[in-house]
Amino acid sequence: MLTVIVPAHNEGRVIGRLLERLVPGAADGELDILVVANGCTDDTAEVVMAFGPSVRLLTAPVPSKREALATGNEAADGFPRVYLDADVELGADDVWALARALEAPGVLAAAPARELDLARSAWPVRWYYDIWARLPGVEAGLFGRGVIAVTEEGYKRLNDLPPLLADDLAASLAFGTDERTVVPDTRVVVHAPRTVRDLIRRRIRVVTGVAQIERSRDAPASSERTSGRDLLAIVRDDPRLAPRMFIFLAVTMAARARGNRAARRNDYTTWLRDESSRG
Description:
Elements: E1 2-8, H1 15-22, E2 31-38, H2 44-49, E3 55-60, H3 65-75, E4 81-84, H4 92-101, E5 109-117, H5 123-132, H6 136-140, E6 147-150, H7 152-159, H8 167-173, E7 180-191, H9 196-215, H10 228-237, H11 242-264
Parallel strand pairs: 1-2, 1-4, 2-3, 5-7
Antiparallel strand pairs: 4-6, 5-6
């Protein structure tokens, strides 16, 4: 049985669209979907229960993704396992494709190709992501997708990670390039922020999380930072992207200033959640 674990904190507005795509794949009993509602004060549990016995609802009193994943792992049976954020969209066929990718020798972790939903985003947000999506680390890494599938050995690797704000980046870095794969014939829909303000909030969290990884002795050694050479190569390959690069750099600098300030305060618990993409 393939297990899907979905931690959900106040995701009542969006988790239904995810489950609508997953539940048809659970009809034959070979897909075990566990939603862990953690510290919810909205109708997340009610939305999940409306999908009936095809979804197992678990609850955790504390709003903590890490604790929610631990609760899901305790209830899970067997491998592989797919960990899935509640605010993305992924179909059951894509889940099975990820599981098949893990059958390749040496592969411990897999993620789907990323499809950014920018339809409701302001133009500066769209321009930012035009650059971001072309960064080498973004193209090859497992982070920023809201999905990671692992074998039993891959699960042990993740379980050894310390508590980190940038948990998806740390999960990607926990595997070597020959141990992880992005499966090209799969798609996860990631909903982008609508406003520049929400984009910056999201990027502040990323900057703070990267700083925590780099300062933690128990975290993976590399954070795969983007270099100036990477940025120059993007504009050199397509000069029409130059105006977008200015937007990308402006957002990056604003987020870096505030994120590094939070890191200097050792504030790795403030979760700057983007609510606009959940509208």
